[in-house]
Amino acid sequence: MKRIILFFSVLFQPLVGVTQQQPSFAPMGAKWFYRPWEFTQPEDDLFIYEVTKDTILDSLPARELTCTYWVDGVLQLNTTYLNKYVHTDSGKVWYWVYDEWVLIFNFDAQVGDTIHSKVGYYGIPDGCAFPYPQDTTWQFSYRIDSLGTEMQNGVPLKVQYVSCADTQCYWYMHYFWKEKQAKIVERLGCIDAGFWWGSGSPCVLAGTPGYQRCYQDTDLNFKGPIGNTECDYLSTTGAEKTPLTLFPNPTTGEIRITSSFHPTAFRVLNSLGQVVTSGVFVEYDEVYLVLLSGQPSGMYLVEISVGTRTYVSHVVLH
Fold first, then answer.
1. In whole angstroms, what is the distance from residue 183 CA to residue 189 CA?
2. Looking at residues 269-286, what average pLDDT do you find?
């Protein structure tokens, strides 16, 4: 009897470990921030990619990266077609391109290895959104030139310095700096190159002279080297911290809001961009209440108006 118990213990222990393991890339709630840049003045656009849910694509577990697009602090609600999907397998990151999984990163790759990949059309044309039409793909290859590690918030991350391995990659990856190495960091992805979000995305998400502005998850708060790099700014007219605090988050139905200013109105939108509740705050108070009772579980976007400014926050309803 003791031998049988020992057998089952050894058999099931690895399975439990696999089930509980969390991917090092694209953990739930992770956010990538991109703010276009025109030489010396920032534009009024802000793109945020956030890991919002688990799903299944082509029989493989995947995570959905939801894109939200902001113009002058106002959420644009028609950007679900920009959502991305990733599947992680050890150090490999697979990226969903139209109807197949394509390898985009391999953090276990060695110096001299070449990654053959491809991307799809980004969906927002801005001068270099090739290939076109939308059902075509752009194949490119990049080479691992050297490896390293760096610390971010006490977390050691693998670093790859890569360069283009074909002529198509030059245009897609870094057209303006054809001889420049790009930097890929575990958890963060591409720091100063455009590939993996889609063909044409460098023109939209970054432009001259830089790329990723910021990355944030429960462990990391990376601030890029170019432009405003605060992760928590909500208005694209400048980097600022919101004067609002929303709690609890996650919530079971009641959202409490504290503010150093007087909020005047609120709206709550579901994942489809539909307004599920709205209202006004007439008098100044220490705590303001927003109720989501009766709404299905999921992620919601809360918009709070303070004077002429609108602040937003994601809230998870259990």
1. 8
2. 83
The whole-angstrom separation of Cα 35 and Cα 30 is 17
Alpha carbon distance 225, 213 (integer Å): 7
Mean pLDDT (the chain, rounded): 76
163: enclosing H helix or E strand: strand 155-164
Statement: residue 120 has pLDDT above 70: yes
Instruction: Please tell me the distance from the alpha carbon of residue 245 to that of residue 116, in angstroms, as a whole number.
Output: 45
Q: What is the 3-state secondary structure (H, E, C) of 172-187?
A: HHHCCCCCCCEEEECC
Instruction: Please list, residue by residue across 133-162, b when 16 or more beta carbons sit within 10 angstroms of its beta carbon and e when fewer do.
Output: eeeebbebbbbbeeeeeeebeeeebbbbeb
SS3 153: coil
User: Which contiguous run of DSSP H or E holds residue 11?
Assistant: helix 2-20
Residues 216-247: tens digit of each pLDDT: 888 888 877 654 445 544 443 443 445 678 88
> CB burial class (10 A; 0-12, 13-18, 19+) of residue 276?
middle
Residue 241, Cβ density class (10 Å: 0-12 exposed, 13-18 middle, ≥19 buried): exposed
Taking Cα atoms as reference points, which of 118, 119, 91 lies closest to residue 105?
A: 91
Residue 69: beta bridge partners?
A: 47, 76
How many whole angstroms separate alpha carbon 5 and alpha carbon 9? 6
* Strand ordering across the sheet containing 309-317: 275-280, 265-269, 298-306, 309-317
- Nearest-angstrom CA–CA distance, 184 and 264: 43
Contact 79, 170 (CB under 8 A): no
**Euclidean distance between the first and final Cα of the chain, in Å?**
43
- Alpha-carbon span 194 to 212, nearest angstrom: 9
| Rounded Cα distance, 64 and 79, in Å | 14
- Tell me which H or E stretch contains 12: helix 2-20
How many CB atoms are closer than 10 A to CB 180?
13
